[in-house]
Amino acid sequence: MKRTSLLLAFLMAGYGLSAFAAGKLGDPAKPLTIKEWIQGKPVDVLDGKNVYVVEFWATWCGPCKTSIPHLSELQKKLKDKGVVIVGISDEAPSKVRPYVERMGEKMSYTVACDDNRKSFADYMGAYNQRGIPTAFVVGKDGKVIWVGHPLGGLDQVLEGILAGKYDLAAARAAELARAERAEYQRLSAAGDASARELGRKLLAKTGNDAQSLVDFAFAIVANTRNKNRDFELAEEALSKAEKAAGAKDHRILGTRSILLFESGKETEGLTLAREALALSTSESDQARYKNYVRVMEARIKK
């Protein structure tokens, strides 16, 4: 594996760098095509009875292992409110079943095995999602109304849906913004001179929210397939995020660690990754930064 692809493999597994294609929020969901139900009763996401969370995962996926206990707690919390969580793997039942058994109460929601990746194509493929874990929320009207990382706002989305306050129009606007960022990545990777102008427009539209600015920078620095990454633009976004945060922030440090590492300042990048780990408090954040440190240390040793 090439030096750049090692970090990319980790980052894409955890965040799912992607761009929306044919599928759009508000489109009708497809029925699940399942080879075998490993745990729980078979479900019909189009039955109009529940809100369904359809999550794609794999036994080999480290970030998936981090999100599984969270999904289990979420299922326990919302099971009496009409929320059903289904985890789908494209692996063989003989591999998934023992994994689920070992997880025990940490994985206490419905689990199934995909049928020749048909469900994967209808969801992950249709929405051009490339990284796992990725979750899709299907409303009682049978439409896909949210797509994202299970630890990236799913709780708040479900709370909003159950309270009748979920703003699909705002979610669609966010989807459009993601499409614009995908176009920026395409132009940048192609070496198109117009990428710079579009990138600056997108940065201006991002505003002064620290998390949004970090996400903007991360999308640039973590896309190691792009040989024309604009590190200067990413640094500008992180500097704005620092002003918005007003204090040392592990999110900013973690993303800047990748920026430095990928721009050739490997030792400095590793130092910041360790600092981000020391500042983080949540289990998911700590798991992420531990992986940053692990991957960076492995690359430096080569």
Beta strands, count: 6
Tally of separate helices: 12
Domains, number: 2
The coarse overall form would be globular
What is the correct CATH architecture of the largest domain? 3-Layer(aba) Sandwich
Describe the biggest sheet?
Answer: 6 strands, mixed
CATH class of the largest domain: Alpha Beta
Strands side by side in the biggest sheet: 1-4-3-2-5-6
Radius of gyration: 19 Å
Describe this structure in words.
It is a single chain. The chain is α/β, with parallel strands linked by helices and 302 residues long. It folds into two domains: 3-166, Glutaredoxin; 171-301, Alpha Horseshoe (Serine Threonine Protein Phosphatase 5, Tetratricopeptide repeat). The chain is built from twelve helices and six strands. A six-stranded mixed beta sheet has the order 1-4-3-2-5-6. A hairpin with a 5-residue loop joins β5 and β6 (144-148). α1 (3-15) runs antiparallel to α12, α10 (250-262) packs antiparallel against α11 (266-279) and α11 packs antiparallel against α12. The radius of gyration is 19 Å and the shape is globular. It starts with a helix and ends with a helix. Residues 1-6 and 8-21 have low confidence and may be disordered.
